[in-house]
Amino acid sequence: MDNSDIITRFLIISDTHGEGLPTNFSLDFYADVVIHCGDLTNQSKLHEFESTLKMISNIEASLKLVIPGNHDFTLDRLAYTALLQNGDLEAKLVEETYGKYGKVGDLFAAYPEIQLLTEGTDEFDLSNGARLLLYSSPYTPSEGNMGFQYSREVGHTWDIGEADVVITHGPPEGVLDRTLSRERAGCPQLFAAVARQRPKAALLRAYP
């Protein structure tokens, strides 16, 4: 289908960290697609996920998509397991506060209109008649112990392919990636992949 003459409106949010939208927030247009670019929570606690999911559910849109961020570490099996094994989380609070791995998926199941994306390519037929080919990834470069992180020395492979839209939690190097200390936090491999493939849009969280 030729999408060139179909107007598709996106609402992009990110880093809500379990907080709701401002009380004075109002949307003066209908969003065909709402995308949360990660960090739904601050400490990956169940009540923070619940708050963010409830907030997204109250936004009117035909398609609602979410990717995790580094703060959403309970969605990353390897990171969550490492935190538990290292004793970085209090064992007695884990099940009640964070839930066992997979518990967050149960929360998402209560909001079937919100789709949690992992890394990869997905295709969606929108209610306005457009077809959207989308690449998403929650991964960011860091030496920390939070979720969905990789070493800068090792780098990361970004298999964007022919995606119309790229959604990432972290920015490409040199694009809205200055931290509060004025350092570059973006990924050079992501910059190269986006520059090479030239998708119609690259949607991401910005620093600081």
Automatic annotation (TrEMBL):
Residue stretches making up the Calcineurin-like phosphoesterase domain: 9-173
GO molecular function: hydrolase activity
Listed Pfam families: Metallophos
Gene3D superfamilies, per database record: 3.60.21.10
Protein name: Calcineurin-like phosphoesterase domain-containing protein
Top-level taxonomy: Eukaryota, Fungi, Dikarya, Ascomycota, Pezizomycotina
